[in-house]
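pinned: reference chain
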Amino acid sequence: MMVVSPSTETAGRLGEWVNRHPVAAFFGLAYAISWVAWIPWAFGYQDGAGAVLFIVGGFGPLAAAVIITKSTGGSIRAWARGIRAWRVPARYYAYALGLPPLLFVAINAELALLGQQVDLALLPGRLMGYVGTLIFVAILGGGLEEPGWRGFALPRLEQRHSPLRATLILGFVWGVWHIPAYGTPIAFVVPLVLAFFYTWLYNRTGSVLLCILLHASFTPAIDQLVLTRDSATVDVAIFMTLVVAALTLIVITRGRLGSNETTREEDPSWIPSSSSLRRAPPSDDKRIVAGQPAGTGWRVSSRS
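pinned: its structure tokens
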């Protein structure tokens, strides 16, 4: 008679739970990895080792996606396909890189109308900061969260929920994940709003790479492209503009956020499994990314 040790039995039950609930397991592991690494930062140790651990903590979602994919028998190569998906129409690159600056052009115009002193002389220096931060976020910073949030969690959530509800769930989890980094509970609301822009881009292209670029553009836009002193008026203008833009996107897409509902319901190849994530491309963008499903941070920090 074979005797099963309690630890083996517990590990077996945990493995079964992870197989049944891969998204919940991903969320829990991403939080655990990142929040443990961010403990020194949260307690004020923001130089030296604290800064290094802060950057390491940002890789929590990516690491969690790799671990859960492997533990559920999935293919890392299939999961990583979206990170390499660069052959998409140029307009989606324009969206990823151009939407955040465009929104902040509107925000600065609003602030000027509200009587704020918008100083255009700041723009050359701020643009240099924008470009530098964009590069950092794309290759080492918050952009590398995207293989986890959009590359792993989003398609699985959309398998079970509408794009709108999936985005609300993911945006909330993504926002709360940022709280130790920002040091304020209310910081979660801006990532929650920004999540809608990412869902539309991912659903139209299946490209995690473009979501990385969108993240890399949003973070420095928020940090660098407000051409006036910080104030409550500025924060309200930013937040309300992002909310209005997100609601406009929801209305224009009728809540589908770029998802092809017919494909999702009728084509079983769309359904993410432990071994692959495949989805037919949207009807108006044929062959966007073969075999793939068709930032970010609040102003509190530039390191998101």
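why pinned: The chain has a mean pLDDT of 86. The CA atoms of residues 78 and 258 lie 22 Å apart.
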